[in-house]
Amino acid sequence: MTDSSLNAAPTPPPDQDVSHLSKVKHIVLVLSGKGGVGKSTVTTELALSLVQMGKRVGVLDVDLTGPSIPKFFGLQDHKVHQASTGWVPVYTNESKSLAVMSLGFLLQNKDDAVIWRGPKKTAMIKQFLEDVAWGELDYLLIDTPPGTSDEHLSVVENLREYKPDGAVIVTTPQAVALADVRKELNFCRKVKLPILGVVENMSGFICPHCQDCSDIFSKGGGEAMATEFGVDFLGRVPIDPNLSTLIEKEGGTFSTRFAESGIAPMFRDITSAVISKCGDSA
Ligand SMILES: Nc1ncnc2c1ncn2[C@@H]1O[C@H](COP(=O)(O)OP(=O)(O)OP(=O)(O)O)[C@@H](O)[C@H]1O
Ligand code: SF4
């Protein structure tokens, strides 16, 4: 992508003396070893559950090559604005307690591809971490690209002084996803990022007719891996065949759409577990 396909990114003021992140109580990264396992879905559901528990939440999408968070929140046509304090994130319609920032808001065309070399990505991530005027937040959830790339390293390095609470690792039960997630767990250990726990997504299938949950693929791999690594297992989330339809559905708010999904109830427990791992209470 060329710079011209970005909307004129507002330049935050250079004299900002207090870091925006110093007003954030808890920082949680959402990681996965492999693409398409449901990292953005987990980030969105966690954000929603946290807001329902009365928390002020920010969601930062640093997946520069495939920013899907705007779509998940139904905010595709939104743009970020500049204030004297920095970039103003996009607030979801219904509640000012949920703010979202993504490269997707800076693209002129949502189908534009971002093809940047490492240093440019690193610079953009640094700016995203430092210059978004979140205000007071209880939780900042950071949705990362799949794998363990330059982006991950730059997120971790730039966050070091703010002591992130840790990472939620998302996997599916299949061995191929698990092999990649092993690398992700080892990455966290190497960079000394605490692991809050593992979520096994797409574990079983909710029947659209009877709402029963059947195990069409293997299940339990995420939990076994968590045990092997001595980290917490946060919970299992089945495939809900209605989820994509709900995300694409016009009208309503994103929270009512996600609340209708069969996986929303599982996230109450997962979110409570994350909160407690962060030393917070619901
Ligand atoms: N539990 C689930 N039930 C049904 N569909 C799901 C579930 N989890 C994820 N999906 C769907 O799978 C697709 C991939 O999910 P998502 O975008 O969250 O993955 P991801 O790991 O963030 O992908 P990437 O980082 O590669 O963009 C999406 O269309 C999403 O709606
Ligand atoms: S679980 Fe299978 S058999 Fe039972 S209602 Fe659903 S589709 Fe039909």
Automatic annotation (TrEMBL):
ATP binds at G33, K34, G35, G36, V37, G38, K39, S40. [4Fe-4S] cluster binds at C207, C210. Signal peptide: none annotated. PROSITE patterns: MRP. It holds the Pfam family ParA. SUPFAM superfamilies: P-loop containing nucleoside triphosphate hydrolases. It comes from the Eukaryota. GO terms for molecular function: 4 iron, 4 sulfur cluster binding; ATP binding; ATP-dependent FeS chaperone activity; metal ion binding. InterPro entries: Mrp-like_CS, Mrp/NBP35_ATP-bd, NUBP2/Cfd1_eukaryotes, P-loop_NTPase, YlxH/NBP35. One of its GO terms (cellular component) is cytosol. GO terms for biological process: iron-sulfur cluster assembly. It is found in: Cytoplasm, Cytoskeleton, Cilium axoneme; Cytoplasm, Cytoskeleton, Microtubule organizing center, Centrosome, Centriole. Keywords: 4Fe-4S, ATP-binding, Cytoplasm, Iron, Iron-sulfur, Metal-binding, Nucleotide-binding. HAMAP family: Mrp_NBP35, NUBP2. Component of the cytosolic iron-sulfur (Fe/S) protein assembly (CIA) machinery. Required for maturation of extramitochondrial Fe-S proteins. The NBP35-CFD1 heterotetramer forms a Fe-S scaffold complex, mediating the de novo assembly of an Fe-S cluster and its transfer to target apoproteins. Heterotetramer of 2 NUBP1 and 2 NUBP2 chains. Interacts with KIFC1. Interacts with NUBP1. Belongs to the Mrp/NBP35 ATP-binding proteins family. NUBP2/CFD1 subfamily. This is Nucleotide-binding protein 2. It comes from Geranomyces variabilis. The gene is NUBP2.
